Amino acid sequence: MQKKTLFALLAMLAISVPAFSIELPQGATPTFEKDITAYASGYKFNELLEAYGLKLAPEAVSTVPTSYAKVADNNVVFNNDSIAYTPVQYHSILTAYGLLLTPEDVTSKLGGVSSYATVKDGEIVFGKDSVAYDGKEWNEILSAYSLPEVAAPVVVPAGCPDEDGDGVCDDQDACPGTPKGIAVDERGCWALSSAVLFDFDKAVIKKQFYPELDKTKKIFDDYPTMRVQIDGHTDSVGTDKYNQKLSERRANAVMKYLVNKVGIEANRLKAVGYGESKPAYPNDTAENRSKNRRVEFTPAM
To answer: Where does residue 190 fall: left (phi above 0), alpha (psi -120 to 50 degrees), or beta otherwise?
Structure first.
């Protein structure tokens, strides 16, 4: 397989950062069948993805078809039946391994496999019929996916004022006063990438990212008087009206999880959607649009 556009293991969270691709691990030679083939998940498909350094974690199995994998004794158990899935199901499998797919990459990289996905009005539309692809088509499909890049630790220059101690100089900090102990993005904001938390055009939090939201419990416990506004944001793809509603649904999804699963008091939280009205970056590149699809926490002490 000649495509070398994928990936390393997914870090459990990427904080408002772009997607990236890396070379195929040295010595790995995964090969899809040349002819149209329906693969068994354990016998072939999972092995092909693992050759790229990808791994299906037990906590992500609930998002894939039950015919693909299950969990037994906290171990992932694959099937040995050759199954052709629908593109929507293939997408759920690939995202469970940590991969991302953007409308821009569908348009630029999937032109030859329109049966898998197309873009309409800025949104990804997946094919509805079960399909078995050949090796060339799988190479093209996988080339369109990518992984979120993990933000590198911020090194504060000597003599740089940093009043809130978040690693971002005060003159560059867009969110001063963040609580101690939280991870911030390069702007100094307590932000989670919507591109990681949610599938495209969805407001259902991916289960593999529950642990990162669970960590906020300690911050709320450390600051018992702190209240947080959960701000939902989108990029500029789509209409203003649609993006406004999408940002509200995502902010409310995070608030609901924090209340119902993490145990944060509802009166300490407020969900607000800003749509595309407050971009953190110019919406001029796919990388910047990915950064703008975010959920930010604005604390009030």
So the answer is: beta
Calculate the alpha carbon distances from 256 to 147, 186, 194, 263 in Å: 27, 27, 16, 10
Contact criterion met (CB below 8 Å) for 178 and 162: no
Q: What is the sign, positive or negative, of the torsion defined by CA atoms of 14, 15, 21, 27? A: negative
Give the tens place of pLDDT for each residue, 214-241: 888 988 998 999 999 999 999 998 899 9
Amino acid in the structure at residue 222 = D
Estimate to the nearest angstrom the gap between the alpha carbon of 126 and the chain centroid.
Answer: 18
Contact status, residue 250 vs residue 194, Cβ threshold 8 Å: yes
**Maximal C-alpha separation, the chain:** 62
pLDDT digits (tens, 9 = 90+) for 166-176: 778 888 888 98
State how far the alpha carbon of 274 is from the alpha carbons of 21, 189, 202, 243, 280, in Å: 30, 16, 16, 8, 12
